[in-house]
Amino acid sequence: MEDIEANLLDVRRRIALAARRAGRSPEEVTLVGVTKTVPTERIKVAIGAGLTDIGENRVQEARDKFRVIGGDVRWHLVGHLQRNKVKPAIEIFSLIHSLDSERLAMAIEDACARINKVQDVLVEVNISGEESKAGIAPEETLDFLRLVAQFEHIRVLGLMGIAPVVVDPEDARPFFRRMKELFDEAKEEHIPGLNLRYLSMGMTNDFEVAIEEGANIVRIGRAIFGERPTPQGRCKT
Ligand SMILES: *Cc1c(COP(=O)(O)O)cnc(C)c1O
Description:
The chain is built from nine helices and eight strands. The chain is α/β, with parallel strands linked by helices. It is globular, with a radius of gyration of 17 Å. The two termini are 29 Å apart. The structure holds pyridoxal-5'-phosphate. Residues 34, 36, 57, 78-79, 162, 203-205, 219-222, 235, 237 line the site of pyridoxal-5'-phosphate (PLP).
């Protein structure tokens, strides 16, 4: 179990170095430990070692783990959210990284109005442009933000993106850079009701490049918890 503590230290060190290279303070970067397929005992070890934010990509799995681990840590939904899972999702997650359609926004708005919650979300942008990937097209993002800003029970705090799978993380850099430009552009719009502050991008293979390009939330699984079993090992979104 010690490996998790050592891995966590190493990831934090690498985050700090990347932040410094970009002239930013390491404390500005929130580490979300992605725990999909990781058993609760191992998650608890990471929490014991100081992990405060955990990310899951499936509502049902998160729900089972939430019952064991509880709400002393912040829960992040990093995977796609189906509309029929919105109700349990808003009961668990502090931040939903994957708002990617008007219909989903409407479902979140309705469910939150019922329990009087304001749900923090990030808008997922399809930065890779791959058709198989979720997310709002970059050129539609500003309009989408203007729309969602009007929902009373949704608070959009930023953007999330997933770079394409590449061998050399340097090849992901242009996608992160484009994402940061979009983020800055969106902030400059000063859309009423919006206070954009989070840019969630970077995973095990590319988080240092993402931080250099402006990420302030990174979502890291394998570098902390080790390789996942193969059937679910790919990052499915
Ligand atoms: C699985 C997953 C991650 C973490 O990926 P690793 O390669 O294990 O660091 C981050 N973001 C999303 C959306 C994921 O599904």
